[in-house]
Amino acid sequence: MKAIAYYRVSTAAQGRSGLGLEAQRQAVEALAAQRQFNLLCEFTEVESGKKNDRPVLDQALHHARITDAVLVIAKLDRLSRNAAFLLTLRDSGVRFLAADVPDANDLTIGVLAVVAQAEREAISRRTKEALATVRQKIATGEKHVSTRSGKEVVKLGSPLGASAFGHMRGDLTLANAAREARSAKRRRDLQPVIDAIRADGHSSWSAIATELNRRGVSAPRGARWHASTASRYFR
Questions:
Q1: Whole-structure pTM value
Q2: Spatial distance between the Cα atoms of 130 and 65, rounded to a whole number of angstroms
Q3: How far is the C-alpha of 7 from the C-alpha of 97, rounded, in Å?
Q4: Could you read off the pLDDT of 82-133 as tens digits, one per residue?
């Protein structure tokens, strides 16, 4: 299986020093060796995980799409800590594996992402509410004192309930529409490649198919390109 490596560090200093990058590279290369992946190339980005606008990641995803490769990362948080971003990525048609959870599939990664973000949001909300209560108590001279330690404490609310999973219901019609949208997006992704091949003098569908195979671009369903496949797909 073909694979694309993606590494991310949060600061320019980390990028210059290699701090964190070497550990990520070792984790990815170990997973690639274990799964017998063929690492085509690697992409390194210096950007915060909180930001969803990351041009280097976009380049890695585009390359993975046109070569039908899996995107391999060292840890899931190297992609994002944002559930919506991870779910969008999952539905983009690019498969990805994280070395820290190598047996997780697209579905379980999506569930983990949604639950983790929902819990983080719940904790953040309860913390803000508790701090507001503390500020009010301080302003009125009232204190909340623990009978065991004698220190001021704040007790957060109850754990996240089952209602957090209510928004995870799927719809078959939407899934079919999303699949067709991904197919159309892949055609758009491949169009610059076709244009470049034609610019190099390959005009027949047979020559175009040969060049697509030489460049490692996978045909639909992972097959090899043939003249009839290329003609039908791009027309």
A1: 0.50
A2: 46
A3: 13
A4: 666 666 666 677 888 888 877 766 666 667 666 666 666 777 788 888 888 7
